[in-house]
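Structure first, sequence second, as always.
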């Protein structure tokens, strides 16, 4: 419990930095999928979160 409480400040700082950047939406999608813990095809949520974040970033950076 104490270790988890000690990491709250680190988590808050990392989320704050991710949400301040120009890729805010990709950061939010990545965080939500990773926090959900959803695994598919025997692959964990961390992989799917990174993949989804990269896809969102690429889609939003395309010229309009």
């Amino acid at each position: 419990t104490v270790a988890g409480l000690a990491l709250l400040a680190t988590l808050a700082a990392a989320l704050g930095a991710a949400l301040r950047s120009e890729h805010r939406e990709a950061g939010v999608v990545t965080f939500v999928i990773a926090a959900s813990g959803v695994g598919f095809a025997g692959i964990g949520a961390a992989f799917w979160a990174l993949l989804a974040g990269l896809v969102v970033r690429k889609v939003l950076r395309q010229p309009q």
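Margin note: The chain is about 75% helix and 0% strand.
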